[in-house]
Amino acid sequence: MNMNPETGEKVSNEPAVLFENDDVVFINKPYGWLTHADGHNQTAPVVVDWLCAKYPEAKGVGEPGYAKDGSELDRSGIVHRLDRETSGVLVLAKNQPAYEFLKEQFKERLVRKEYRAFVYGRMNDRWGTINRPIGRSAKDSRRRSAERGAKGVRREAITDFERVGMGEYDGEPFSYVRLIPKTGRTHQLRVHLRAIDRPIVGDGLYAEHKIQKSNNLSLDRLALHAYILELALPSGETHRAMAPVPQEFEIAAERIAE
C-alpha cells in the first residue's frame, strides 16, 4: 500500500488483471485510484495511465473527455468508470472496435453488475428495489439527489438490493448488502442508499452526517466494492469477471455477524 500525499489515504500499488484477450482487459481497480483524470486531483494514481503504459496500443482508444475549464482529459480505453473511492472490477477496451462494442452493451443495459457494500443502520427488508429518479443536489454541486428538491432533469434510476448480513459493532447497527444496479447513473448506489437513510459507510459525500458520530465499522475507506461484471465480448463469448471482496470487507462482515 502507498499513501496519497494529498489526502493521507492508503492506496493500493496497482490494478490486478482478472482477464484479458486481444480486445479487452478486466481489472480489479484499487481503492484510491481514479478511473481517468478529472482535472482536479493531481496526485492520485490513474487507471488510464496504467493502461497506456502496459498496453501502448490502447492509447487514444475511445473518446476524450473535457474538464470544466475546457481542457481535454485522456480517457483511453475507458468504457465505464468507478469512483476513486470504489474498488472492484472494471473492463477496459484495447482497440476502437472493442470500445464501440462494449459501449453499446452498457448503453443497451445488457451488462450485469453486482456490488457489495456496508451501510449504516439496519436494512429491515431482506431484499427489495429502490426506484427513484436522480437529479442534481440543490445544496451541493458535487452531489446527485434522489430526494425531494433535486434539481435539473431527473433520470430513471433503479437498484435491486439484498441484505447479506446485519448486526451491531460496538453497539452500533450496520448492514452488509448486495447491490445490483439496473441503470448506470452517476453515484447511483451512493445516492439511492442515502435516499432511504441507509448511506454507505465511510461516504464523505453522502454520509457526512453519519461519519463523525459513528465508529464506521473501523473502516477507513468507502465501503463499496464492484464485485461482479458480466457482459458479452467482441469475440462472441460472455465473460463474468469477479473482483475478490477486499480483506477489510471480510473482517467487517465478521464484526457484525450474528
How would you describe what is shown here?
The structure is a single chain. With 258 residues, this protein is α+β, with helices and mostly antiparallel strands. Helix content is 16%, strand content 33%. It has five helices and 16 strands.
The quaternary state of the protein chains shown equals: single chain
Largest sheet: 9 strands, mixed
Tell me the strand percentage band: 25-35%
**Uncertain spans:** 1-8
Instruction: Enumerate how many helices there are, as a single number.
Output: 5
Q: What's the end-to-end separation, in Å?
A: 31 Å
Radius of gyration: 18 Å
- Per DSSP E runs of 2 or more residues, the count of β-strands stands at 16
What general outline do the C-alpha atoms trace? globular
Taking all residues together, what is the mean pLDDT? Answer: 91
Structural class: alpha+beta
Approximate helicity band:
10-25%
N to C succession of SSEs: EEEEHEEEHEEEEEEEHHEEH
Topology:
Layout: E1 2-3, E2 10-11, E3 16-20, E4 24-29, H1 47-54, E5 65-66, E6 72-73, E7 87-93, H2 96-107, E8 112-120, E9 127-131, E10 134-136, E11 144-145, E12 151-155, E13 158-169, E14 172-181, H3 188-195, H4 208-211, E15 224-232, E16 238-242, H5 247-255
Parallel strand pairs: 7-15
Antiparallel strand pairs: 1-2, 3-4, 4-7, 5-6, 8-14, 8-15, 9-13, 10-11, 10-12, 13-14, 15-16
